[in-house]
């Protein structure tokens, strides 16, 4: 995914096309299921709430989102923002191309607050992640919800795959995975980082395949 915190790469659209193909679904499908659950919770609390999507990619998940919610998308790659806006979906309120590493509230303005924010496979690309997480908190309404996913580096399974099979596949596609994730989290370090950024009700857990982490949190009320 092209994300705030990483330069866009030539394999951008190819990577998104793979996300819904086997065996890539083993990684991505559990994330999408948890994200849909999150969005249903948001809709229950804010039936007409606006959701900020950080590192929007191609916004596949909007197809399963509850009706009533609206979405503002942000990405460092103008191709991603343009592709999402080209959908012509009335639920998409706008799109913003943001600078890498900059806290999101600076890019969107301090007065623009959201009922919820989600960032799928983003935070691992961000070097200045403590300030970046704090920016997400400031962009939420009081009590607003946050959902993040990130690769699970707290267990050996994903690093083993990345250094072998996935690296071979990446090189055949013209790039390398060696430096693709400069920031690596375990459930413990992600949970600690979210708490340090000022979030409450923080929960971080691994997906059933043990390859990724999903986390839910709230801004203070």
Notes on the protein architecture:
This protein has 221 residues and is an alpha/beta fold. It has one domain (12-218): Rossmann fold (3-Layer(aba) Sandwich). It is 34% helix and 23% strand. It has a seven-stranded mixed β-sheet, with helices on both faces. Strand 4 (114-120), helix 5 (129-138) and strand 5 form a beta-alpha-beta unit. The chain is globular and about 45 Å long.
Overall tally of domains? 1
Q: What's the architecture in CATH terms? A: 3-Layer(aba) Sandwich
How widely separated are the two ends?
Answer: 31 Å
* CATH fold group: Rossmann fold
- Name of the CATH first level: Alpha Beta
Count the E strands. 7
Multimeric state:
single chain
Q: Secondary-structure blueprint of this entry?
A:
Layout: H1 12-18, H2 25-45, E1 50-54, E2 70-75, H3 78-85, E3 92-97, H4 104-108, E4 114-120, H5 129-138, E5 140-151, H6 157-163, H7 165-172, H8 187-196, E6 200-206, E7 212-218
Parallel strand pairs: 1-2, 1-4, 2-3, 4-5
Antiparallel strand pairs: 5-7, 6-7
Short description:
With 221 residues, this protein is α/β, with parallel strands linked by helices.
Short key terms for the protein model shown above:
34% helix; globular; single chain; Rossmann fold; alpha/beta; 221 residues; disordered N terminus; 8 helices; 7 strands
């Amino acid at each position: 995914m092209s994300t705030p915190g990483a330069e866009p790469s030539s394999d951008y659209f190819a990577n998104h096309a793979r996300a819904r193909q086997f065996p890539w679904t083993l990684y991505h499908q559990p994330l999408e299921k948890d994200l849909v659950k999150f969005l249903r919770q948001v809709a229950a609390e804010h039936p007409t709430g606006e959701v900020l999507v950080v590192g929007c990619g191609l916004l596949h998940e909007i197809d399963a989102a509850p009706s009533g919610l609206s979405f503002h998308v942000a990405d460092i790659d103008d191709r991603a923002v343009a592709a999402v806006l080209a959908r012509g979906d009335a639920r998409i309120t706008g799109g913003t191309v943001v600078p890498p590493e900059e806290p999101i509230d600076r890019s969107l303005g301090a007065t623009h607050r959201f009922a919820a924010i989600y960032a799928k496979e983003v935070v691992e690309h961000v070097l200045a992640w403590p300030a970046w997480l704090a920016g997400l908190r400031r962009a939420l309404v009081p009590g607003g919800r946050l959902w993040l996913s990130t690769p699970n580096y707290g267990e050996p399974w994903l690093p083993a795959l990345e250094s072998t099979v996935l690296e071979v596949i990446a090189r055949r596609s013209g790039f390398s995975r060696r430096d693709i994730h400069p920031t690596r989290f375990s459930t413990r370090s992600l949970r600690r980082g979210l708490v340090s950024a000022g979030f409450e009700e923080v929960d971080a857990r691994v997906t059933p395949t043990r390859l990724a982490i999903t986390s839910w949190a709230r801004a203070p009320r």
